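User: tokens in, sequence out, please.
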């Protein structure tokens, strides 16, 4: 960790409790339906792993990688598919899982992209929602927490490609 004071925004305990609630809700909502969870790499790998283990229904799980921020803190607005889904999702209800909806550009792009594979339905679930930064019209169907406009890391989210393994969501306090 960098030599700055860490501010824990969402604790491990709070994350676990909320994921249990959302996992139950998703299980109820998709009962009797064919569910395909699409995890967006790399940011959602930890969230997805915890979330699917709180689901009590059968679920198929796949992955897709889109271009991300890299070291920068703001979206380029230009999303690329680095690794596409390779399952046939026709007839499946797809639930896209990501770490955060920030500008919303990535999620909107992925939702549009998946339409051409003709799934039964497409919804999304995110750990974090940062509505103040939204640039496109998108509202997550399921979200665990809403956060203010601060850059965060931990629990899958990176800063300069590090800190994904930190088990809570944090930012650094500004020291003037
Ligand atoms: P969006 O396209 O601007 O909604 O954001 C897409 C991606 O940017 C997310 O999936 C994250 O990987 C990354 N991102 C956005 N905000 C943050 C943050 O506060 N910390 C770390 N990554 C972020
Ligand atoms: Mg991401």
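Assistant: Sequence out:
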């Amino acid at each position: 960790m960098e030599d700055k004071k860490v501010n824990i925004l969402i604790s491990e305990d709070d994350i676990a409790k909320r994921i249990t609630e959302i996992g139950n809700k998703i299980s109820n909502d998709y009962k009797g339906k064919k569910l395909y969870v699409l995890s967006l790499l790399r940011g959602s790998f930890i969230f997805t792993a915890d979330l699917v283990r709180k689901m009590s229904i059968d679920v198929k799980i796949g992955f897709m990688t889109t271009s991300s921020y890299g070291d920068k803190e703001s979206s380029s607005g230009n999303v690329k598919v680095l690794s596409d889904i390779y399952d046939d999702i026709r007839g499946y209800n797809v639930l896209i899982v990501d770490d955060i909806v920030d500008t919303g550009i990535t999620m909107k792009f992925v939702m549009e992209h998946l339409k051409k594979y003709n799934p039964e339905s497409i919804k999304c679930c995110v750990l974090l929602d940062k509505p103040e930064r939204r640039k496109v019209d998108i509202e997550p169907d399921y979200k665990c927490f809403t956060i203010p406009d601060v850059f965060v890391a931990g629990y899958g989210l990176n800063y300069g490609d590090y800190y994904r393994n930190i088990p809570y969501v944090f930012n650094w306090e500004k020291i003037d």
